[in-house]
User: What shape does this take?
Amino acid sequence: MVKVNLPLLEVSGADYGDDEAAMVDYRADGTARAMAMDNRGPIRYDANGKLHPDILDAYSRAGFYVFEDVLGEAERADLERDVADILDRAPVAKDAKLDKHGRPALGVDCQARTVGWVKPLSDPNGGTDAAYGRHPSKMNEPTPPSDAPEHVVQVVLGSLQFSDACLRMYGHPDLLAVTEAINGPDFTPFNDIIWIKHPRLGASVAWHQDGWTHWENPELDENTHGFNMMAQLYGCDAANGLWVVPGSHRMGKVDIKAMVEVAGSDRLPEAVPLICAPGDVAITNRQAIHGSFANTSPNVRVTINVGSQRRKFVLGVTSGGLHSPVALYDDDYIRQRSRVIMYGIDARRQRYPEETPYVYAPLADREEQYRWNDAAKADMKDYNMQDLGI
Assistant: This one.
């Protein structure tokens, strides 16, 4: 059992009722199939210092990859302290303006959305028109514990402005090298979120594909909508982690509702879970079919999520409305949002001076403009109003 130093609620047990036995078998089968795949291991480079082609090949086949042992104990401790502070500063309840100490709550002075809440063990989006209707089928909703609160925190959006540790991870040279290898040296950001899957309370996320702008683009390929990079603070398993349908990122826009109907339940037989230890970082293609089940287990999942995309599919696009306001993603807009990468690189340089910093090509000639200091922290407020959602 991983020791967790977070201010989490302790509630009584929960399970899937009549479906519990089927869920136990499904998790065991999915775990075995996931661990038999060839898409996990440390970040490795070839003789030329490029991400090893075996990794790129495995990611291309599966649509996800688990990089093992990326974040060391000291970095995880920094992340844990910041996540604990964020939860301590969260509104005392949904729509509240104060935290539990009577202070102005985290994000109440922000224009952008920050803290997102959800009803315990629910599926708020499945079968609805939310998020461009991309969650077409409802997930199983177990009965919450009798002592469950009305809502729990599920996400913290724009997380890099609230956590120096998350920002430093954002500037991790190996993780940025992985990003460059997949999305090119001129890659752009997507968005940044902390996901919290509370023990016995965490809600599900219905099966979906993330992208929405380029499904009909004649240049559509397996990487058009980018990927999400998901650092696991405490690890994750089949009960509390993300599940992915391998290879589905190559299938274009999929009729997920039909897949669920054929399966006869939300337990898609093709899917496998992300199995990660503390400090592992998984990448998942945004075009892959993925989702997660309500967390009836006693284990918390905390995922530090950062996304990125290929510039050619972002530049000149008018989009938004889900992660940020609708806007034209021109050069100036992209440059402004990408400054956060530079802040992350410099924040990490200050904390880990022994590392060789990553060089972000689009802004490398402006490095001196992006020093991580008090002025930069002020500049970061509401940076996620310019998230680049495609």
Notes: The CA atoms of residues 37 and 99 lie 44 Å apart.
